[in-house]
Design brief:
The protein is built from 18 helices and 20 strands. The longest helix is centred in the middle third of the chain and has 21 residues. It starts with 6 loop residues before the first helix and ends with a strand.
């Protein structure tokens, strides 16, 4: 499919083009931003940005500035909301058929374009409410001015070594040096926990997380990462690909900010084609997709001047607002259907691979790439020749197919000892229930048979992958207060993808359960030798397996410790918790013990 657009969509742009253009932004002196006052060379500091929003919200009753929670810096997160009706209760806004847009800025504070673009946008909207009223009747806009507060406070002018402005900016790591765009599932930071509170309270229809890209060189100022359509329930994914994205690309072109899908190549050239970015749930757009929110990451190009990037980000935010206004009823209806379908869905993909057999034609403008001799190293280096631009059709691989699909259980059972997991579920407003008494329940359980772990730390963790499982059915004794997680909720995707250990960003992958990967007991060989003989003598089947192993495996036969360990692992002494995944699945209400479970709803926190 070509990214070409119909005459009907082009006609819709007439309305977009009638809106104020960033070439002539309002410049009323008392509402001038740091970006404008510095001749578009500087970005607002934390204090300047918050003070600016305080001034706007004190002047215009359609704006409300609130604080939430705290961050690793010790400061709260701010949220400024523009509601034409001056209604700021998000539950009521949903009931009033309003579409909600959430804009998240400065997740990487060295990429501050969205900070300044959002200040300009909200200022322009409230200064010209009569012009924007048709859109704002349907859409409520909320903006997090600075998400990574600690990074914003850590200003410098050197860490974005390849970036063209502004003069100063923040640092990518937060107050604890976490990259917050890897923390949406694991919630290591106070920033992420407070963001989760905001996101779940808003339940936004669309999320835009603003960034500046790294990677290849090309003429476009703006590119965009999009929620993978394959992960969304089909009608919502079809709407994203067939209506919303074409509208956004057309709108941006009409506003002299031609846009391209995020160029996902590093150390190479896009002219031979490229693939869609895989936005697993650790990232903002992948996290949003778990809750049927249309997620985008804007990616302004690092080599373009700062002012061009801010204007392009402004134009994208305005285009998203226009698209949401035009289709607000449809977006809300499709999300409602997706939520209901997810609550009833039986099979959930939890791991994906890029389908290289399917691709789309993409008309792409680029610079000819070549390998030239480096004056520094003497080796060949990549060089983009701006004297040799091209425009050609390339292949864009944007189809992902599931590699692992699981059948959901009726509910999961989690022993209360795993409080960090339970707290993460609570933060994401998953409905949980407590067992009211001790009882035995028939469950499906997993044992980790093998897994791989990265060799170097990644965001404070050693991620697991390629997890293999052994499944068994057994009766487990649960205690009063253990947690039941019904899998009949519209948040089912979050539930399944975090609790199934083979999920790409599951809690197991992020080391929440690493204590099960270590034995807590053992044996002294000189003592266990005699008992091992007795164990073999009493178990003909085990003795036969032991002797066959020793006969066929010379390394095993020559290692006394391995032989004793073999017997120990097959004896009553071997601890049952080793490699046993402590989240259990109850597959059906036909379970004969199901009726014994008397749940109690957890109080809201």
């Amino acid at each position: 499919m070509r990214l070409q657009f119909s005459l009907k969509l082009r006609m819709l742009m007439l309305l977009v083009c009638s809106l104020p253009h960033t070439g002539s932004l309002y410049a009323e002196t008392r509402f001038q931003t740091k970006f404008e006052a510095s001749s578009r060379t500087e970005t607002a500091t934390y204090d300047e940005g918050i003070a600016y929003y305080e001034q706007l919200s004190q002047t215009f009753p359609e704006l409300q500035l609130r604080t939430y929670g705290t961050t690793d810096s010790g400061k709260p997160l701010h949220l400024i909301t523009l509601s034409l009706d001056r209604e700021f209760d998000f539950a009521r806004l949903h009931r009033q058929d309003k579409a909600l847009l959430l804009i998240n800025n400065a997740i990487h504070p060295g990429e501050p374009d969205g900070v300044d673009a959002s200040m300009l946008l909200l200022r322009d909207l409230v200064l010209n409410l009569s012009k924007f009223e048709p859109m704002l009747k349907r859409v409520v806009i909320s903006v997090i001015p600075f998400y990574n507060v600690g990074g914003v406070l850590n200003r410098n002018s050197t860490t974005r070594v390849n970036q063209n402005g502004p003069k100063e900016y923040g640092f990518r790591g937060n107050g604890r040096n976490f990259d917050l765009n890897r923390d949406f599932i694991k919630n290591d930071t106070l920033n992420a926990r407070t963001f989760t509170q905001i996101f779940q309270e808003l339940d936004p229809d669309v999320l835009v997380d603003t960034h500046v890209s790294n990677g290849a060189d090309y003429p476009y100022v703006m590119s965009i990462v999009t929620t993978q359509k394959d992960k969304l329930r089909t009608p919502l994914g079809q709407y994203l690909e067939g209506q919303m994205l074409p509208f956004l690309f057309t709108s941006m072109a009409s506003r002299a900010s031609e846009m391209i899908p995020y160029v996902n190549v590093f150390g190479n050239s896009p002219e031979n084609g490229y693939s869609q970015f895989f936005d697993s749930p650790r990232y903002s757009s992948g996290y949003a997709a778990l809750f049927h929110t249309l997620g985008f990451m804007s990616e302004a190009h690092m080599l373009k001047p700062f002012d061009q990037r801010v204007i392009a980000t402004y134009n994208l935010l305005l285009s998203v607002l226009q698209s949401m206004s035009k289709d607000s009823d449809q977006i809300r209806r499709l999300r409602a259907k997706a939520k209901k379908a997810s609550s009833l869905q039986k099979h959930f993909p939890i791991a994906w691979h890029l389908d290289t057999t399917r691709s789309s034609d993409l008309r792409f403008k680029g610079y000819e790439a070549k390998r030239i001799r480096s004056e520094l190293t003497g080796q060949l280096r990549l060089f983009y020749d701006h004297e040799r631009p091209y425009e050609k059709t390339i292949q864009y691989a944007n189809h992902y197919s599931p590699t692992i699909t699981i059948t959901k259980p009726e509910f999961y059972l989690i022993p209360q000892a795993w409080h960090e997991v339970i707290e993460a579920l609570e933060r994401n407003q998953v409905t949980l229930e407590k067992l009211q008494r001790d009882q035995s329940i028939r469950v499906e359980s997993y044992r980790i048979s093998s897994y791989q772990t990265v060799e170097t730390p990644y965001e404070g963790h050693y991620l697991h992958h390629d997890v293999k499982l052994l499944k068994t059915s057994e009766t487990i004794r649960f205690r009063k207060g253990d947690i039941k997680v019904p899998v009949n909720q519209w948040r089912n995707r979050y539930i399944v993808e975090t609790l199934e250990p083979q999920g790409v960003d599951s809690f197991f992958a992020w080391n929440f359960f690493d204590t099960i990967l270590q034995r807590k007991e053992g044996f002294s060989a000189y003592v266990f030798e005699d008992e091992a003989l007795q164990i073999l003598a009493a178990n003909d089947e085990l003795r036969t397996r032991f002797e066959e192993r020793r006969a066929s495996d010379s390394e095993f036969a020559n290692n006394s410790r391995d032989q004793l360990m073999f017997i120990y692992e097959h004896s009553p002494h071997h601890e049952s918790s080793y490699l046993k995944y402590p989240v259990y699945r109850v597959l059906s209400s036909e379970n004969p013990l199901h009726s014994n479970i008397t749940p109690q709803a957890l109080p809201a926190r």
